[in-house]
Structures are given as C-alpha cells and as structure tokens.
Amino acid sequence: MPAASKFGALPARGKQARPTAFLTIMEGCDKFCTYCVVPYTRGAEISRSWTAILDEARALVDGGVKEITLLGQNVNAWSGEDSRGVMQGMDGLVRALADIPELQRIRYTTSHPNDMGDGLIAAHGDCAKLMPFLHLPVQSGNDRILKAMNRSHDVGSYLRLIDRVRAVRPDIALSGDFIVGFPGETDAEFEDTLRIVDAVGYAQCYSFKYSPRPGTPAADMDGQVPAAVMDERLARLQAAINRHQVAFNSTTVGRRTDILLERKGRYPGQLIGKTPWLQSVHVTAPDHAIGDLIEVDIISAGPNSLAGEYSRRKAA
Ligand code: SF4
Fold first, then answer.
1. Fewer CB within 10 Å of terminal CB in the chain, N or C?
2. What is the distance between the alpha carbons of residues 94 and 24, in angstroms, rounded to a whole number?
3. CA–CA dist 167, 169 (Å, integer)
C-alpha cells in the first residue's frame, strides 16, 4: 500500500515520468510565406486521421499523460472526418479529446491567424480543458511588410481576431513570433512592430532576425537589411516583449491557480509546474508529486517564472 501525503499516494510503478506530451496532428503548410522553407521541405498540409489522433491520445493518457499539446506547422488548419463520417475542424477534435476523462489539459501550436475559425474561438470560451494560451504569430506590425511576407492577413484583421478571442476568454495569454529586418523594412515599418507588441500585450513572444533561406522568394528581394540594424531592432523589440512578459507575470501574483507538476527544479525539494497560461511555477513539493495537478498561491513573479505556495491537490 503506497504511503499518502498532502500530494496524494506515492506513485504506482510505471507512473509517467512526464505528464505532458506532444501529439502531431498534421504536417506541412500551404501558406508559402516568402521567408519560409517549410512548404518546400515538408510539402502540402496533410491532416492525420481522427481515429489515429484519438487512439494515440488515449494511449498517452493510459500511460499517465495529463496534458497534450497538439502539434502542426499550421495546427489549426486541421480537418478530417470523425467516426461518423462528419467533417470536423480543430474545434471538433479538441472537444472529442476533452471527452477523455483523465485528460486534464489540451493545448495546440502553431496557429495561423487565417485558420482561426469561429468554432475554435468558441471552444476557447466553453471548453474548460482547452488552456487559455494561444500562440498566434503575426511576424510584423506593418501591412506593407506583411504583404511582402505573403502572410495573407493584415494588422487590422489580426487585431480583430485577438479581440474576438479575448471576448470569449478575457484572461487568455497571447504569444507571437516576430521577424525583424525583413528585406526592405524601414525604421518606420519596424516602429509599427513595436506598436503591435504594445497593442496586444503579449504574455511571451519569440523574436528573430531575418535570415535568408535559399530558394525562398525573400532571399532574392532587394533591400536586405544590414546586420547592425537588425541587431539594434531585435534588442529594442526584445526589450518591449520582456516588458510585457514581466507585466503579464505580475498580474498573476496573489492569484490561486492550478499547476500541473512536470519535473524537478534546480534545488532539492523543488518541482516545476505550469499554469494554465503556460508560465513555469517553482514550488516546494516531493518528487512523487510529479504528474499531480495542484492548486498554488502565486507569491512572486520574475520575467521567466513564478514562485508558488502549495494550497491543495486537485482531484484527478
Ligand atoms: S511561416 Fe508558418 S505559415 Fe508561413 S509558410 Fe512557414 S510554416 Fe507556413
């Protein structure tokens, strides 16, 4: 009989070492952004079958996984027939996964703004297992650059999309990708990127200097931006992103929230778990609690992680 603690019984043999898993649901991309090799190297978008995804998800959950992140280059373009032969989009798939009782959390990445359908937006409002985190790259805050990138959305349509997601899930954490120094990007066009970062208030972002990829249209475009200019723009962008990340993390201080304990921390007795908003939380807890969903009080926040105090273990 395993010993019990405030974190529950000690683990049975074979308890999943990591309670989180990735599940690829589609490959490839049809978007042909002018800087990207994926459509050439990975080919057209192909969705895995409904049955294959559900079977793999159930197997992961049977192995102890509590959180699944659905993966694809354009994950929200997924579509396929369900077990009754009815066409479904990502929202239908998410709802079917949410019906697996022991699966606690669902995430997905990476999304394209143009594939963010009404059903998926609605799911963010009414599917409790779909976590309030959305990685939705915009790449630039300037419409001329977005057109040159062949992103097929503009700043206005992107911001309206964000508004619609926030209308159904006001606390959603937003994440993005940015490229600075795309060929021909002027100082003023870069300033527009800083403006969209402020307008959205991202919880976290990835940012990169443009790097030509052989065989892509952008690699042959005029106006390649000097490295020193890109360095300076990236530093300014990252300072803005960090400012918003710190602000977002600060809003969680004093809040009681669930975290899924995923792994050991750097110090003895310390574990790291993730909030619904994908923030890392350091908390004191025994190793055998890895895999537990617990409630913590957030007591402090830094730019990259939070500190929490254990409140109680949640029912599995
Ligand atoms: S950046 Fe993303 S959406 Fe654009 S072509 Fe590459 S994989 Fe597709």
1. N
2. 13
3. 6
Q: Is the CB of 149 under 6 A from ligand 1?
A: no
Any atom of ligand 1 within 6 Å of the Cβ of 112: yes
Whether 2 has a pLDDT exceeding 60, the answer reads: no
Distance between Cα 316 and ligand 1 center (Å)? 37
- Topology of domain 20-251 in CATH is pyruvate-formate lyase- activating enzyme (3.80.30)
Atom of ligand 1 nearest to the CA of 110: 2
Which residues have CB under 8 Å from 69's CB, separation 6+?
Answer: 20, 21, 22, 23, 106, 107, 108, 109
Q: What is the distance in A from the centroid of ligand 1 to the CA of 302?
A: 32
Q: What is the pLDDT of residues 54-81, one digit of tens each?
A: 999 999 999 999 999 999 999 999 999 9
Query: Is residue 66 a contact partner of residue 75, using CB atoms and an 8 Å limit?
Result: no
Band (pLDDT 50/70/90 cuts) for residue 311 is confident
For residue 73, the CA-to-ligand 1 centroid distance in Å is 7
Cα-to-centroid distance, 78 and ligand 1 (Å): 14
Atom of ligand 1 nearest to the CA of 32: 5
CA atoms within 13 A on the CB side of 11: 16
Phi-psi region of 275 (alpha: psi -120 to 50; beta: other; left: phi over 0): beta
For residue range 23-39, list pLDDT tens digits in order: 999 999 999 999 999 99
Q: CATH 3.80.30.20 occupies which residues in the chain?
A: 20-251
- Residue nearest ligand 1's atom 6 by CA: 36
For the Cβ of 97 lying below 6 angstroms from any atom of ligand 1, the answer is: no
- Tens of pLDDT, residues 210-256: 999 999 999 999 999 999 999 999 999 999 999 999 999 999 999 99
Task: Look at the domain 256-313 and name its fold.
Answer: OB fold (Dihydrolipoamide Acetyltransferase, E2P) (2.40.50)
Ligand 1 binding pocket includes 153 (Cβ within 6 Å): no
- Given this model, what pLDDT does residue 313 score? 77
